[in-house]
Design a protein that fits this description.
With 696 residues, the chain is α+β, with helices and mostly antiparallel strands. The chain has 20 helices and 15 strands. Helix 3 runs antiparallel to helix 4 and helix 7 packs across helix 8.
């Protein structure tokens, strides 16, 4: 009678002159996969009746989690032995060395004579074994066993077997359960966290029922299932924070790549992240979330430029950050002289002949980027950034989507900034909700501009001067250096590249309005239902531009739509165009504010393209923004955001050269001086006193 044959998923069988593995079952058949990868389905009865069919138990894989003794690194087991057991084993090895060679260490290093009782030239091995067994209080048979184990397994063979047994907690578990747990954990890695004993247990059982049939594989109880999950999953488990699992899921499944650079500016990484600090806006008496955008030089790990903005960084901020990279950081009045550019230990006087701006600059490298590396964020993929890089001759390299390991250096610097800067700042809120204090918003005391000033002092005074453990200089792998020292050494090796010093760079980096040219009409230039005009436009009314499309490009800063900028092709100068319906009381407004004003016009049943109505609604919106009694949460956020963006636009404009028609204060009046007149000699102005009504 033939013995029964048991086939299980994963078993190996010999069939059709090949070694094949069982990878699935159907109602009446078996799915086989050969060693060459060929798949086939055969009736179970036909498989068992085949003359060349036989099972191969030796080729069957071990249970998931089972550790095979022959696959264990025996020498590595010694690392886990207790200190007392390790000392006992080493002492016993010295005794066996003495039995073999006559010396405890196995060699005559001390040039002394061996003990006559253990001298191989005078005694036999059996006699030496008997003598050593009597010395140790063991039987000769036991010492012969220890000697054989020592010769076969080395020092591990002398240890207690109970302490060297390989740990295999998952050996008795069905491998199909282990596979289902790992597959379900991979499927849930981007979902919200859940307890292991409830949702994850139910989903894993459903997966097993779908793969192997209802009730074919049953999970153990919830307590034992929880222990199996903890042992089977190496990474984050389903009950760990979702942020940890999502961050781990973004890691590649192979060795991380490594971007290298040997000279300043060869690769500059840029990225934007939410700063772990809440800002306070004194105008609206409200808190504002902050985003930080940085540019990091890969070769020297230097912070080349940074911008702090309210949440929602725009493409114009990224484009102007390129100008910041090539512009020296100005010294603040209260900064010490040790933070000046001259402290970088480079030929400062010789570089001053190239760029006079460095005379009053801070100790922050000024670099001309060759390649920019950034991700697929919306501000970085805009036409503004692409055109700015094309204008400056900078190559663009995109990181892969959702792959932060393509630019790990700039990702890592955010953790450094949070640890060295944000944690010590009022308004620190932690990296996520699990690290946030109970009243984090109440501790916010600094505005975005204040935080930007503090960050500039941190970047120049601390980060650039601090030794960077991960900064390895080309040719000096053992030298620890700061970013400033690395920059000085790189300049000595690669030379200094002069950065463009064009005062009109600000205007050229501004986006062209709506990405297309305009015609100049008698009333001016119309952009998005707003008309701009200036005296310079009268020369070019209804004329074709020298550009191929015949239209005139008008540039606008989306942070201040009160003005636009026109480039005169005759003299190459820039001119300011003002909104024709703007009143003197109108403050600078952003693209967000004008959209809100047009929405209010539509709500009132008026025409949103009528500039008079838009101007009235805009003035009403700005007046309400000045009255805290009318503020809503949305109005507070919009006012704080627009206020900061307007100040940032003003600072950027001040850095550029003044436009040709920039209004200047009158020069025909002499400057007022306190000693030219005496305030006490000025007669007081007459005041109006109303007459009291007569009493009849």
């Amino acid at each position: 009678m033939t013995a029964p044959t048991r086939l299980a998923l994963g078993d190996w069988v010999a069939f059709d002159n090949e070694t094949q593995q069982i990878v699935g079952f159907t109602d009446t058949g078996v799915r086989l996969r050969s060693e060459t990868g060929r798949m086939q389905i055969i009736l179970l009865a036909a498989l068992l009746a085949a003359p060349d069919f036989r099972t191969i138990p030796d080729s069957a894989p071990a249970n998931a989690g089972e550790v095979r003794t022959e696959a264990v690194d025996r020498e590595a087991i010694l690392l886990g032995l207790p200190a007392g057991e390790r000392a006992r084993v080493e002492e016993l090895e010295e005794h066996l060395h003495q039995v073999e060679t006559g010396f405890p260490t196995g060699t005559a290093a001390d040039h002394s004579e061996p003990d006559p009782a253990y001298d191989p030239a005078q005694t036999t091995l059996t006699a030496r074994i008997d003598t050593k067994a009597a010395e140790l209080g063991l039987t000769s048979r036991r010492l012969w066993q220890l000697r054989r184990a020592w010769q076969h397994d080395g020092l591990v063979g002398l240890a207690d077997r109970r302490k060297t047994r390989p740990c295999a907690p998952l050996a008795p578990v069905d491998p199909r359960i282990i596979t289902a747990i790992r597959e379900q954990a991979a499927a849930d890695r981007l979902e919200s966290s859940a307890t292991i004993g409830n949702r994850f247990h139910r989903r894993t059982q459903n997966r097993l029922d779908a793969q192997h049939g209802l009730g074919e594989v049953v999970l153990p109880g919830k307590d034992r299932f929880r222990r199996i999950v903890h042992q089977a999953l190496v990474g984050p488990r389903p009950d760990d924070p979702a942020t940890l699992r999502i961050r781990t899921a973004n890691q590649p499944d192979r060795t991380f790549g490594k971007a290298t650079a040997t000279r300043p500016g060869e690769v500059v990484m840029m990225d934007t992240t939410g700063l772990d600090v809440i800002a306070y806006d004194p105008d609206t008496d409200d808190t504002v979330p902050v985003e930080l955008t940085v540019a990091l030089d890969l070769a020297t790990r230097s912070l080349l430029a940074w911008r702090l903005t309210p949440r929602g960084t725009k493409s114009v901020d990224i484009g102007l950050l390129l100008a910041d990279v090539m512009t020296p950081e100005p010294m603040r009045p209260h900064w010490p002289d040790a933070l000046r550019f001259a402290s970088l230990r480079i030929p400062h006087e010789r570089i001053l002949t190239v760029d006079q701006r460095l005379a009053h600059a801070a100790a922050r490298p000024v670099i001309y980027p060759e390649t920019l590396l950034f991700d697929h964020g919306k501000p970085y993929k805009s036409e503004v950034v692409t055109r700015a890089c094309r204008r400056l001759g900078i190559s663009i390299q995109d990181a892969r989507m959702f792959t932060p390991t393509d630019k790990p250096h700039v990702e890592r610097i955010f953790a450094t900034i949070n640890r060295q800067f944000c944690e010590h700042l009022a308004g620190y809120k932690g990296s996520d909700i699990t690290h946030r204090g109970l009243h984090a918003e109440d501790t916010a005391r600094w505005s975005i501009d204040d935080i930007a000033e503090l960050f500039a002092e941190y970047a120049v005074g601390i980060y650039q001067r601090r030794h960077h453990q991960g900064l390895i200089l080309h040719g000096f792998p053992d030298l620890r250096a700061s970013p400033n020292e690395a920059y000085a050494m790189a300049i000595a090796a690669a030379g200094y590249v002069d950065c463009p010093n064009d005062p009109d760079l600000y205007y050229e980096l501004l986006p062209i309005a709506d990405g297309k040219g305009r015609t100049i009409q008698p009333a001016g230039v119309r952009i998005g239902y707003l008309t701009y005009n200036a005296d310079i436009l009268y020369r070019y009314r209804r004329t074709r531009s020298p550009y191929p499309d015949g239209l005139w490009p008008i540039r606008r800063d989306p942070r201040n739509l009160l003005h636009a900028y026109f480039h005169d092709p005759d003299d190459g100068r820039w001119h300011v165009l003002r909104w024709t319906h703007a009143l003197d009381v109108h403050q600078p407004f952003t693209d967000v504010t004008i959209r809100e004003a047009r929405r209010l016009v539509s709500q009132r049943g008026r025409n949103p393209t009528d500039q008079d109505d838009v101007a009235t609604a805009l003035l009403d919106l700005q007046n309400r923004a000045d009255d805290p009694a009318t503020w809503t949460r949305t109005a507070r956020s919009r006012t704080a955001r627009d206020s900061h963006r307007g100040r940032a636009a003003h600072r950027d404009a001040q850095r550029a050269g003044p436009p040709a028609d920039d209004p200047q204060p009158p020069t025909d009046l002499p400057p007022a001086s306190a000693d030219e007149f005496d305030l006490d000699e000025i007669p007081a102005a007459e005041t109006w006193k109303p007459r009291l009504p007569r009493i009849p």
